[in-house]
Amino acid sequence: IGFRYGSLSEDFFTGYSMQCEGWRSVFYSPEEPSFVGDFPATLNDLLSQCKRWSLGLLQAGFSCSKCPITYGIRRASFITGMSYAHNAFWPLWSIPITIYALLPQFALLLSMPLFPK
């Protein structure tokens, strides 16, 4: 089995494309791990990998031909399409999380109430 290329996160794109083509997936957890894996050794490598994953997921989510919201719902089930859409647009959650993390500190520094009276 090979990967489908055309996205920075080819594992997500491969699974999504196969699900839309009618393949069925199962979860398999062997007694011993099949792959030990490779992990980023430094913080810079980790941030680079997270950036690559985020860009790849957004690339798959905003693709014109295989958008999970439109193409995924038509080709797979509604729940499968919405699940892939949730994962594809996951990087966008960083925006409101960052705002909600910084808002109390700014309110404290500027001596402004966080909530209006």
Automatic annotation (TrEMBL):
GO MF, any single term: cellulose synthase (UDP-forming) activity
GO biological process, one term: cell wall organization
Main location: membrane
Keyword Transmembrane (UniProt): yes
Domain of life: Eukaryota
Cellular localization per UniProt: Endomembrane system
InterPro entries for the chain: Cellulose_synth
Alphabetical UniProt keywords: Cell wall biogenesis/degradation, Glycosyltransferase, Membrane, Transferase, Transmembrane, Transmembrane helix
GO CC aspect terms: endomembrane system; membrane
Record field: transmembrane: 92-115
Any Pfam family hit: Cellulose_synt
Name of this protein: Glycosyltransferase 2-like domain-containing protein
